């Protein structure tokens, strides 16, 4: 009996500690999605990696990554702006190089040293620092921005290149920044929990790293607490949702705000797929 129990504990530990590149967001990293439900599979690229972003002993947010385009499709996180600093270094994901490598994001230099590999090895399935150094007028645009995270470690964790897309500099410093820093706090006022999914639509490019055609974001606001029969006091009541989208290519420094349904329709068109669903039950009241 005791042996069986030990075996179970051991098995669950192995499973939990196994990997930060996970096989499904339906069973891992669910804490970053409203109702523990990721967007429907339609947004999954062919050569996908699901990363449960791990830094300083904690999971910080979730990223669906496209290993062919070398940009994220989306990052999902809980909006909790707080004080803290920005990282000076950039990180990459060791498990995109080799699934047996360590699970915490790290700098290229320390990964090269630890595993005796080159930048080329690191860059096979993901963007590396060098890719961004050559870009003109394009910033390292965060999908999960450091400003929406609560503390130093969570902010630093957003400085992984797996959370970054080449973003038009004027947009990054202009309208998108206003959306992140002014619109979001207004919209999320009175929300007890705000789940956010921010993504990028890949464009056709020749480079190693795709320069997305659009950048978009959606949020689901929960107020008050509800009693969940399955568990305990769990989450809160979904009361509203909203969305925003901006052209990154041929940008005119403009962010369009739109409701969730319209954003999902627009994304279905842009990705050329059927019926994108970002939040379970459209984040409406159940
Ligand atoms: C970025 O957008 C501005 C307009 O806001 C435009 O003038 C510029 O050419 C764009 N840069 C790139 C690299 O697309």
UniProtKB/TrEMBL annotation:
- SMART domains membership: Endonuclease_NS, NUC
Domain named DNA/RNA non-specific endonuclease/pyrophosphatase/phosphodiesterase: residues = 57-273
Protein name, UniProt field = ENDD1 protein
Per UniProt, the keywords (alphabetical) are: Signal
**Signal peptide: which range, if any?**
1-19
The organism's taxonomic lineage, starting at the top: Eukaryota, Metazoa, Chordata, Craniata, Vertebrata
Keyword field contains Signal? yes
Q: Which domain of life is it from?
A: Eukaryota
The chain positions of domain ENPP1-3/EXOG-like endonuclease/phosphodiesterase read 58-278
Q: Name one GO molecular function term.
A: metal ion binding
Stored InterPro entries: DNA/RNA_non-sp_Endonuclease_sf (IPR044929), Endo_G_ENPP1-like_dom (IPR001604), ENDOD1 (IPR039015), ENPP1-3/EXOG-like_nuc-like (IPR020821), His-Me_finger_sf (IPR044925)
